[in-house]
Amino acid sequence: MRVQYPRTPHLPWSPGATADDVRTGDLSGLRGAEVVVTEKLDGENTTLYPDGLHARSLDSAHHPSRTWVKALQGRIGPRLAPGLRICGENVFARHSIPYRALESWFYGFSVWDGPRCLGWDDTVRLLRGLGVPVPPVLWRGTFDERALRALRLDPERQEGYVVRTVEGFGRAEFGLRVAKWVRPRHVRTDTHWMHAAVVENGLGPAAALWAVRSGGTADPAALRAALGLPAGRPEAGAGAGAGAEPGAGVAPGAVADAAEAAVADVCARLDVLGRSGDARLAGVLAALLHDTHRAPLAPRLAAPLGMAAARRVADLVGLHPAPHRPYPDEERRRGLARLALAADLGTLHAVAAAVLAGRPGPEAESAREQVEWSALHAEEAGLLAEAPLEPLRAGLREALAGLGPEAADRCWAQARESHAQGRTSTVEEAVAAGWRWRDGAFPRLVQLTGPAGSGKSAFAARLTGVDTRISLDDLRTARGSRADQRANGDVLREGLDRLDGALAAGRTVVWDATSLNQHQRSLVHRIAHRRDALITHAVLLVDEDELARRNSVRDHPVPPEVLTGQLHRYSPPYPGEAHRTWYVGAGGTVEDTDGTLYTTDGAPHTDGSLRTDGVLRTYGALHATGER
Fold first, then answer.
1. 576: helix, coil or strand?
2. Is this structure's pTM higher than 0.85?
3. Is the pLDDT reported for residue 609 higher than 80?
4. Contact, 54 vs 2, CB < 8 A?
């Protein structure tokens, strides 16, 4: 069934309303509600269905400006559930406003399930999963007429804005829940755009990313440009064979050719798996950048991708050699189950296979066989789906509704561990596995990890609900000199003794040290596990250039060669190494999470005994504001 998009009424103060436009005089449906204001784009209203599309008119005929959006519908339509439709703006052709740096030629602004418009956050999440951007968000908050009237747009490049409630609504409520403001004299051309030659609007660098998300062709050079990475030879070249050191005897042209082959191969594999949105993009970028050092990758990619996607790409880059290696078959299922806590195994195996594309030699052939064998075991174990534990997690979330977030996270961590050991497969078994943690009577540990200058101490200072903070720098200072590294062994032992005592007393402890690698972190974990503590990694991910700048202005800078050594040794923890993980960006806020039960990973808690007040940016808010 085809449904025409309703006419959007003008706000009372909209100067662009004409005599035949609808103007609302009733703002009661907006007052008191949380609303989101998005830019109104100058294009053609278009609705996409699982099996087709139409412009505003249900019987709209073909026009050259609609060719591209038809191809988009062909890619994403099969992934739309029956009854869903996407309403948005086809901005392929220039109308009155010339665009020069669009993210896509189609922007979605609402998703409908039959007669109901989905809430904004669900809309953004669904569209992003399909590879469709939303218009730029200009404002979000409780409806405030003065704030909306105060919005200042550039009439030469912005048509106007649309305000809608964040909460979903029925079609009958549309006129009360949605309204628009349009610039004066919006149409400023003599000839209607449909009767003129089609002039394409310009695409910006990010369009290459959205093309991949939507199932389109991946252009390696355009992707590197979108990420702000130099063209040509990567910083660390591809090895001569599986397991070879990066840059081992490979010509720059061969590196580029290998990357292009890997990208083409992984696209085909991901499409067979049905990956789309950020999952497809992460796999493609991991194949493109597979020969890059992992540690600096996430902070470098956070700006163009957002922290959630950036760290997933980096984790795939770091883990993709694992399926190349032999592994005892009797231990393989357990190993894959643990690996599934750190990465999407379907995507990981696709990347692992793709980077071997065209690579000659017996070592590469052996690696290919290992990847195929590993993928067969993962499929047999039900671990190749994009989120294989989500049904278990959803059931446990429902079963533990009302439990405090930290107790719930501890129960979820125990359920995942039991699943990896093959002892848990049902919700009932997961509930039983975490029974002892439901009262929340356990100590907490937040272990900070990051090089000098990444903001660990500043982040720790803003955490509330902390009983004890153990800083190795402070312990060295108490011995006479913060910079004196000669007694590091004694300082570490003193810190670990204090940690043991605090956790034994049931306290919440922050461990403030660089904790650069798994060995350093394991010394702390050993004590925390003995004391049955909930372990949270706070991983601070800051670009190397920013770290060098910060170090130069710190009160206690480390020698440049020391910072360089730390960066060389730094291996950020993977998801699953702790019960849960917070990923902290350069701004000192938690921008992504892993291991939480009540919230989608990427959405930090905002309640519980251990709080991160003032340092949280929720995943929903990040993406609902259009930040990418």
1. coil
2. yes
3. no
4. yes
User: Among residues 590, 501, 597, which one has the least CA distance to residue 540?
Assistant: 590
The tens digit of pLDDT for each residue in 427-456 reads 999 999 999 999 999 999 999 999 999 999
Contact indicator for 345, 339 with CB cutoff of 8 Å: yes
328: its two tokens: 């005892």
Q: What whole-number percentage of the chain has pLDDT above 90?
A: 79
Q: Helix 277-288 vs helix 252-273: angle between axes, to the nearest 10 degrees?
A: 160
**277-288 helix and 120-130 helix, angle to the nearest 10 degrees:** 40
Name residues whose C-beta falls within 8 Å of residue 457's C-beta, 6 or more positions apart in sequence. 471, 473, 512
Please give the order of strands across the beta sheet that includes 468-471: 468-471, 508-512, 444-449, 534-540, 580-584, 590-594
- Pairing type for strands 534-540 and 590-594 reads unpaired
Is 568 strand, coil or helix?
A: helix
Any idea what the Cα angle at residue 280 is, between residues 129 and 589, rounded to 5°?
65
CA distance 119 to 183: 27
Among all chains, which residue has been given the structure tokens 């009302």?
402
Tokens 């039900």 correspond to 382
> For residues 350 and 218, what is the distance between their CA atoms, to the nearest angstrom?
15
Is the CB of residue 104 less than 8 Å from the CB of residue 134? no
- pLDDT, tens digit (0-9, with 9 covering 90-100), for 13-62: 999 888 788 888 899 999 999 999 999 999 999 999 999 999 988 877 78
Contact present, 160 and 109 (Cβ < 8 Å): no
CA atoms within 13 A on the CB side of 460: 26
3-state secondary structure 108-131: EEEEEECCEECCHHHHHHHHHHHC
Whether the per-residue pLDDT at 316 is higher than 90: the answer is yes
